[in-house]
Design brief:
There is one protein chain. The protein is of the alpha+beta class. The protein has one domain. It is built from four helices and five strands, in the order H-E-E-E-E-H-E-H-H. It has a five-stranded antiparallel beta sheet with strand order 1-2-3-4-5. Helix 1 packs across helix 3. The chain is globular. The two termini are 24 Å apart.
């Protein structure tokens, strides 16, 4: 495993992607957006997402878009990742993760999930251009 991911990596990864800005959605929730479409949101604590160990609402949840419901299910089903879902998100193709558990991922795993979230919301041409740029960087 590489370096464990941190909450600061979320910001660094999101801001490294083309045309990303930190805005708001769901009223006042900080959200990373690409051309106005959110792909990663800082979720407010509420009664729909309760920590089973404490019975208290999670206070550090991220909602991360996945490209498909199959991709969501794969992340949630993998016991080696901290991703989960709740009944409130059963019709959504997004996963939840507590920022306090990001260290269970290495930074490259987190980067992959965030890039997929961005790509699910970004215009297809922008995605193709960015991914081609990344492929070009890895060839040199």
């Amino acid at each position: 495993m590489g370096r464990p991911a941190t909450p600061a990596d979320v910001d660094a990864i999101c801001r490294s992607l083309p045309e990303v800005e930190l805005g708001t959605s769901w009223g006042d929730r900080p959200t990373y957006l690409v051309r106005g479409r959110g792909f990663l949101l800082f979720r407010a604590p509420d009664h729909h997402a309760v920590d089973p160990a404490t019975g208290e609402p999670y206070d550090d949840l991220l909602v991360i878009t996945t490209p498909t419901t199959d991709a969501k299910e794969a992340l949630v089903a993998d016991p080696s990742t901290p991703f989960f879902t709740i009944d409130h998100f059963r019709r959504s193709s997004a996963v939840l993760v507590s920022q306090s558990r990001l260290g269970e991922l290495d930074v490259e795993e987190l980067r992959e999930v965030i890039i997929e979230a961005w790509a699910a919301r970004a215009p297809k041409r922008l995605v193709r251009e960015h991914l081609a740029h990344l492929d070009g960087d890895s060839d040199g």
